[in-house]
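Sample intake sheet
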Amino acid sequence: MLLKDGKIIKSYKIALGRQPVGRKSCQGDMKTPEGMYVLDRRNERSRFYKSLHISYPNLADVAASRKRGVNTGGDIMIHGLPQGFEDLGDIHTARNWTKGCIAVTNAEIDEILSLVPNGTPIEISP
């Protein structure tokens, strides 16, 4: 959901990491991180059409990973569909298929990129 002044202005069907239940604990666990982050940069030439980077890992994520002796991973994005799969549209949400990112359709990532400036906070919650 996109919010402005506490009100929902837009909502989207999404696909998450292949193992969406539970907190992300390390690189390669196929989970989408949960918590407070910032949308900090965009990539108009992403291999997944276009993307908006999420500032994972935050300080708490790094501390938890160090305590467990694992790599936090990173490179978590909100992105469109991969090349060759653009025609899937909303059907891509029938199952969670990313490695930990949040996927939307190409039209939706275009819309999100037009509405959301860099530096926008994002809360990812179960």
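Comment: The chain has a mean pLDDT of 94. The domain at 13-124 is CATH 2.40.440.10 (L,D-transpeptidase catalytic domain-like).
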